[in-house]
Design goal:
With about 90 residues, this protein is mostly helical. It is built from 3 helices and no strands. The protein is about 85% helix and about 0% strand. It is elongated and about 50 Å long.
Length: about 90
């Protein structure tokens, strides 16, 4: 298995485990205000961080296979997605 593909999958699995942990914490807090704080950290920070990490790993894996201009387009597209989804 390609090491970049492995790292991308591992990052997503780790994120899933962290999300499951956040869900359990939210249930245990049993308070909407505290649950919103946990949700803000995991939704507002962790989501984009994982997206950027997995994208950068994918770009690193592709870096020797595609032209630099196309890599630049991928990175610009990623930035546009982040910009377009900011609240």
């Amino acid at each position: 298995m390609d090491r970049y593909v492995f790292a991308m999958g591992f990052a997503r699995i780790l994120y899933a485990v962290l999300n499951l942990g956040a869900a359990i914490i939210i249930w245990r807090l049993n308070e909407a205000a505290d649950a919103m704080k946990v949700n803000a950290v995991f939704g507002g920070f962790m989501g984009p961080a994982v997206f950027i990490t997995v994208t950068l790993l994918g770009v690193a894996g592709l870096s020797r296979r595609i032209e630099p201009a196309n890599l630049g387009l991928i990175l610009i597209g990623t930035l546009l997605i982040l910009w377009g989804t900011r609240g």
